[in-house]
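Predict both folds.
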Amino acid sequence: MVIVPIAGVAVAALAIAFHEVTDASSDAVLFSGETALGALFASSYAVSTLTALLVFKGLAWGISLGSARGGPAFPAIFLGGVAGLMTGHLPGFSESQGVAVLMGAMCVATLRLPLTSVLLAFVLTSSAGVAITPLIIVGVVVAYITTEVLSARFEAPSHEAAATPPT
């Protein structure tokens, strides 16, 4: 009962800091993201505001997950959308492509469900057209393989393997 209130104060402090740094609404940092996606895409945030949102929302999400409050799916999709909007400022990459690919990539990196991640990214960005589907699939596959390789590399060794003497 001590950790949850401390986590709540930390998330509130991050939301206030985001508002002070960017003058944007703190709602994007406070809530999970399913209702904020429409407002995110309707706004025309600068790259600096999107970067701040990515950092502050990412920290708030990590605190919330670490204190047993909040789920992983919608914040991952929201952060993928934020990162996708940032890619719209890169040469040769449109916002719709970036949003679709990075929503799927963030979703699969968090949930480890490749087919679900492809479907979610496609349904959420279906107005961009069917031609974007191969990009989503490639992004999800790359993110899934990367996540699996990194988690296997940093996984703690099994106690059974350490206790078994070599033969």
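Second protein follows, with its predicted structure tokens after the sequence.
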Amino acid sequence: MSEPDPYLLGYHRGEQERLERQAEELALESAWLFDEIGVRDGWRVVEIGCGPRGCLGLLSQRVGATGRVVGVELSQEQAGRAQRFVADNHLTNVEVLHADARSTGLPDGTFDLATARLVLVNVPQPEQIVAEMVRLVRPGGVVALHEADSTAQRCYPPHPAQTRLLEVLNTYAEMNGIDRSIGLRVPRMLGESGLAEVRVNPLIHAYPPAHARRMLVLEFVENARQRILDKDLIGEVELNDLMAALRLHLEDPGTLVVSSLFIQAWGRIPSR
């Protein structure tokens, strides 16, 4: 049985702040992807699931005054935050729509690029989102995804608290039709959607002491806390104890913290 709101991590303040921070943390690798694709002046780009910031600023710079960027966001609060970000930064070539990624209402084949970053890993029925992205792009245009195999998060020495918390998070995701390892499937999904010249760039990181992303597992669990508790997947006392134990382990500078496996994959809509 799915939650009324399908996004795995919810929309409370902590998740909003994490997403805004994530936009800065992932900016360099997203910039690399857009440069590799060849995004340039005059392009029309749609970012699906842009959240409160996403890649809107990066894309705005690349398409220039003659281009257009459209951000699509399901959460009304996040769409509002993105609209404020656009206004505050005078991104006059960017528009943010409060709309469903599976049915945006935008016209067929009007974009040079449709892109999404770490969206499919948090929602059910990701194939519907990919199909909508393909619909929006013109022949010869590009669909690009940046996704994760979030089940690959590890630390060394391993800690039973992390093992248990990831087990709970993965179980909750599976109950709601969410594939936290979807990054591995993305290249095949693009090929099966009819895209040609599909390319793949894998990324993995070791987060040093004091790096904000060392605590991502704890942030994910905290953001999904009430949903997990409501499903009786774990008791609150045990959850708190596990999170405290894992925090101590991750704060130890001798602990190696390794990220998810990230997959950037992109391909072209065949010219007719």
